[in-house]
Each structure stands twice: as C-alpha cells, then as structure tokens.
Amino acid sequence: MASIKQLDERKFKITVSNGYRPDGRKISKARTITVPDSVGRRGIRQYVSRAAEEMERTVKQGFCEDAEMTFEEYSLRWLDRQVKYAAGTIASYRRMLKVTYPFIGAIKLNKLRPIALENMLVELRKRSNHGKPVQEATVQKYLTVVSAVLSDAKRNEIIPKNPAHMIDLPDTEKREQFIPTEEDANRFLNALLDEPQEYKIFYVLALYTGCRRGELCALKWHDFIMTDKYRCVLTVSRSRSHIPGQGAKEGPTKNICRNVVKVTGENIIVKEPKTASGDRYVYFSAEMASLLKEYRKFCQQETETYDERELSADDYIFRRHGMKLPMTPSSFTWRFKLILKKHELPENLNIHSLRHTSASLMIAGGADVATVSGILGHSQVSTTLDIYTHAFDDKKKAASAVLQESLDI
Fold first, then answer.
1. pLDDT above 90: percentage of residues in the chain
2. CA 40, CA 47: separation in Å to the nearest integer?
3. What DSSP state is assigned to residue 328?
4. Per-residue confidence (pLDDT) for residue 102, from 0 to 100
5. How far apart are the first and last CA of the chain?
C-alpha cells in the first residue's frame, strides 16, 4: 500500500516501497503532488487516492527506475532483463561490470560524467594479467559493457545522453588472428585417425561447419536429420558454456539465431548468405554425411551397451558414457591440447582455430564476405571483415591481378 502524508490543505506526499537494494537498504519512491484548485474540497481525497494507486501500480510493475538510481543498481537490473544473450555472455558482462563498481558503481545515473569514466579507464590500465599489463583493447571492453548499460538508460529516457560516447579513446593495437593453413588442417585431420569416435567427429564437425565449441556440445539427435544416404540437415540453436560457480549452462547461440547446417551429396561447398531469420546453410560432401551416419550407429551401440535402451532423439550427440548428460566443452579443449602435443602440431592452435580455418578456406575458395558471415553466424558482416581482413586482402590482390591481366596493362 502507498503511504500518503498531508503537507498542507492541497499538498500531499505519496511514498511507495518496492523491495530492497543489494546492500539491504529499502527501495522507496516518493512523490509530492498538489491537488489542482479545479478539484473541490470533497474531491481532494479521491484525487489523492487515485494518484497513489497509479504511482503504486507504476512502481510495482518495474517502471520506477530513474536518474537517481546508482549505476550499480541500474546495471544489476539491466543484467536481469537481458534475454538476447547467452548465459556465458551474461556471466562475462556481470564479471566485467563488477570490476567497474569500485570506480563508478556508487555514482547516480544523472551524476555520471565522462570524466568519471575516463578516471575509471586510467585505473583499469594499471591492472595486470598474469604479470603482464592489461592491453588497451581489454580496457576498452569494460567501457563497451558500461556503455551498453548507459545506452539502455538513455533508451528508457532516464538520462538524456550516454557519457561513454563522449570519451576520446586511443587506437588499439589490432591483434591478428592466428589462422591455421590448409596443411595444418590436414595434419590435424590425420592426427584424428586414432582418436575415439566422439572426439574425431566433434573436431571434424568444428572444421567443416565453423560452429563454435559450445554450439556443438549442445547438439541433440533431434537436431540432426538424415534424409537419405547422401543428405542430412543439422540445426544449431543452442550453446553450452561453463560459468564460474554455476557449472555448465545451456542457452541460445551467441547471436540468438536458428542456424541450419545442411550436408548434401555435393563435392563442393556451396554457400548462401544469412537470411533475415538468422538461418545459415553449409553444404558438405557425401563423405561427411556418411561419416555422421556411421557415428550415429556407433552411438546407438554405445547406448544399448551402457544404458540398455534405444538411442533417443533427445539424447545429446556428444554425451558421457552411461549418462544423458552432455560432455563438457572443457573436455574437448583438454583433448585437443593432448593431440597437438602428441603429434607435434603448432601449440598456438586451439579449437576456435578450426572455425578460423573453415572461414579462411571458404574465402580462399571465392566466397564473398556476406556468405562467410552467414555461415559463421556473425551478427554483422563487419565482424567477419574485421577478423579475416588478411584473407580478404589476399582475395583483393588476386582479383586485381586478374583484372590487370585481362586489360593487358
């Protein structure tokens, strides 16, 4: 119930309580109203009661966020409202925001100025990671998350502008992605010949689909449809990730799109650009379809042996023996390192390198940036261009050489 206090004949203070803050303090919103002279004395009580009911309804429905709220309090509410990010992404944002709270957490939204953010960046640049100074790109990632919170406050008309947009940031040193060569990829595929089936198929899928580690770990057999001997469809809509203190969590893919990977009898890879719905299509060889079909038979035998039952469509494709639980993403990372060491492969390779190899080979095969972006599931084409600049530059040089040869310059 709202509390009403009469200040004078026509002035009243309405107070509504709405839970408690993280530090235990009570959250209450107060508003002073003046009853217009057009309202007669007999109507004053009714006017004030109606105003109190409206204010209580607004507060209880969660529309009480205002510029007097501290950055920490608003950011915690912002995190709770997010549904478009994967669980791992939210956990990462939560950790990064927690680092910023000692610097700006107690500042009210309407008092947060660019100078406070600049001072925060100065302090963050003094931090170290494993004995090495934090890179400028990492420091600016913290500001990016802070800016996302402030942009949300601006969108909700709580603050007039985002102070993070007013900061003049230094250029960051672009770190070139390590992209394995085709020779490295073939050496790795040869190294998989003696590996257990589940690891072999996982790494081959990572290379041939460009899917992320978490996306592959979340696959179930109902996502995998074999239409005939040479054709199959793989739908990717979930991802699993490890969240510190919470274990493995499953949520939507990174860009919350339904990604469909089709394997056909074609011997070449045919790419289609990403559609508005978020679907992405990758076509594979008949050999790949056959390999996946054989793996399903293997899983069926394993299920009959350990579980004494038929393989279910709801079973994870990569799961622990005798259990319905999926294998953890870290299992594949650990095994990957063992394979590299055993076969003396480059130590700077990782599972994500297989995704990079997939993309670079598509680019080398003549795929345009929109097509590659769609297959990888990037939310923006600019992301693909930024990561694979070197590969596309090589294509530009090749195209320029062809043009000059054609024009006989």
1. 28
2. 10
3. P
4. 96
5. 84
34: Cβ contacts below 8 Å, ≥ 6 apart: 10, 11
Q: Render the burial of 233-251: b for 16+ CB within 10 Å, e for the rest.
A: ebbbbbbbbbbeeeebbeb
**Tokens linked to 192:** 């998989």
Strands 247-252 and 238-243: antiparallel
* Contact by Cβ (8 Å): 240, 329: yes
Find tokens 């508005």 and name the residue: 276
Q: Do 183 and 235 meet the contact criterion of CB atoms below 8 Å apart?
A: no
Dump pLDDT digits (tens) for 341-362.
999 888 888 888 888 887 777 7
CA distance 380 to 382: 5
Residue 365 has pLDDT above 90, yes or no: no
- Phi, psi values for residue 262, rounded to 5°: -105, 135
Q: How far is CA 123 from CA 174, 222, 312, 332, in A?
A: 22, 50, 53, 37
Classify each residue of 153-177 as buried b or exposed e, where b means 16 or more C-beta atoms within 10 Å of its C-beta: bbeeebbeebbbeeeeeeeeeeeeb
Strand, helix or coil at 65? coil
Helix axes 286-306, 197-209, angle to 10 degrees: 150
Give dist(CA 47, CA 52) in Å, integer: 9
Q: Is the pTM of this model over 0.90?
A: no
Bridge-based pairing of strands 281-282 and 259-263 is unpaired
Report the 10 Å Cβ neighbour count for 51: 17
Give yes or no for residue 378 having a pLDDT over 60.
Answer: yes
Over residues 282-291, the pLDDT tens digits come to 566 677 778 8
Residue 18 phi/psi, 5-degree rounding, is: -145, 70
| Region of poorest pLDDT, from 43-57, 184-198, 254-268, 362-376 | 254-268
Distance CA 350, CA 335 (A): 11
